[in-house]
From TrEMBL:
It is found in: Cell membrane. The chain crosses the membrane at residues 56-78, 145-169, 190-215, 235-265, 313-338, 358-381. It is a multi-pass membrane protein. InterPro entries: MetI-like, MetI-like_sf, OppC_N. Belongs to the binding-protein-dependent transport system permease family. This is Peptide/nickel transport system permease protein. GO terms for cellular component: plasma membrane. The keyword Ribosomal protein does not apply.
Length: 393
């Protein structure tokens, strides 16, 4: 039983001590696994309380969860298929969504456009007629697609009016909808960061854990290797390894190859973090007790030492994902990473290489906006996790 709270929400300091004692009896038969579960639950709860105080980190977490969830249903959310070409709408600027027409509420709609050729500047000019109202349709039938490449369907969240178009972010040089391609590209650009950091995390824990636990010549060799890798500029090294990938490989093999490159070259930072933690933890009494009981190296590192700073590893991995997303974007932008028909934010930015193209068609640089937002969100999330995992914060 607990004492009734005061007006300010705090318990009455004059109440008997018995009022602050839990009614739940103490279980003397609680084994080590149960005690560890209680301690872990308490630690996670404290971390969650601390994390909730970091408002920007919470907002970033919600934003990333929504973004990654949208990649599952990207075929349904995108207005068009990523490869659908509109030959009459090449380089069409973004269409603005309206709600009112001539003072009357119509609902979400766009004005129909008329295309003319500017022979003086050799470019297409799209003029809104102002008279044709193309109302957007929701939960409608549109371009057919294979959901995750398996299930045929044609249902979309939003579609243009019958006989009309809806290009919220314009079209590219082939008349493809930029917004739809950005949605499809998110699936590649976001997942390549997760797969790469998973591989980096595994390598960092294994190599850094063995170096920190055993020390000696193995630790010295690992440190020299990490110093050499960290001294080489990342972009030229990525470029050199990406150039080795044969051009005859299928898009899936190229995707796997780029993921392997990003994961194999980015484990050094996590390995050093794991090594520094294990150097201090290997002298603890519970590690010595596990060693005396005959536990092997893998069990000591995996069951007794790594869980003690797993929160720190999660925060470090969260801060590593943006680097891999930027790496894939840079490689694809330079033309040596992912290649068409794979759609990613980096491959979409290849059309914005020329300053003249960007000056005439500025909407082609829109794919850089999700890259900036995702990188900032991961950095804020990593800061919040790091502060929540720090017991002295």
């Amino acid at each position: 039983m607990t004492a009734p709270p005061r007006a300010d929400g705090l318990p009455d300091p004059g109440a008997p001590l018995a009022h602050y004692v839990s009614d739940a009896p103490f279980d003397p038969n609680l084994d080590d696994a149960g005690a560890a579960a209680v301690a872990e639950a308490s630690q996670l709860r404290l971390m969650w309380w601390q994390f909730r105080r970091h408002r920007i980190a919470v907002v970033s977490l919600v934003f990333l969860l929504l973004l990654y969830t949208s990649t599952i249903f990207v075929e349904f959310l995108a207005p068009y298929h990523q490869d659908t070409r509109h030959l009459d709408d090449i380089y069409e600027p973004p269409q603005q969504v309206h709600l009112f027409h001539e003072g009357a509420f119509v609902g979400p709609f766009v004005y129909g456009r008329h295309m003319t050729l500017d022979m003086d500047n050799l470019r297409r000019v799209y003029d809104e007629t102002g008279s044709r109202v193309d109302r957007l349709r929701f939960f409608c039938r549109g371009d057919p697609y294979l959901f995750w490449g398996q299930i045929p369907a044609s249902l979309h969240l939003v579609c243009p009016a019958e006989g009309g178009t809806f290009f919220a972010l314009g079209t590219d040089r082939l008349g493809r909808d930029v917004l739809s391609r950005m949605m499809y590209g998110a699936r590649i650009s976001l997942t390549i960061g997760l797969l790469g950091v998973t591989m980096s995390l595994v390598l960092g824990i294994v190599i850094g854990g063995l170096a920190g636990y055993h020390g000696g010549w193995f630790d010295a060799a690992v440190q020299r290797v990490t110093e050499v890798l960290q001294s080489i500029p990342s972009i030229p090294l990525w470029m050199a390894l990406a150039a080795i990938i044969p051009v005859t490989w299928s898009p899936l093999l190229v995707y796997v190859g780029i993921t392997l490159i990003l994961g194999l070259l980015d484990w050094t930072g996590l390995a050093r973090a794991v090594r520094s933690k294990l150097l201090s933890l290997r002298e603890e009494d519970y590690v010595l007790a596990a060693r005396l009981m005959g536990a092997g190296t893998g069990r000591i590192i995996g069951r007794h030492m790594v869980p003690g700073f797993m929160s720190h590893l999660i925060a470090s991995a969260t801060l590593t994902i943006p680097g891999m997303i930027l790496g894939e974007t840079a490689l694809s932008f330079l033309g040596i990473g992912l290649r068409p028909p794979i759609t990613s934010w980096g491959t979409m930015l290849t059309e914005a290489r020329s300053v003249n193209i960007v000056a005439i068609y500025p909407w082609l640089i829109f794919p850089v906006l999700p890259v900036i937002l995702v990188v900032l969100a991961f950095n804020f999330l990593g800061d919040g996790l790091r502060d929540a995992a720090d017991p002295y914060h």
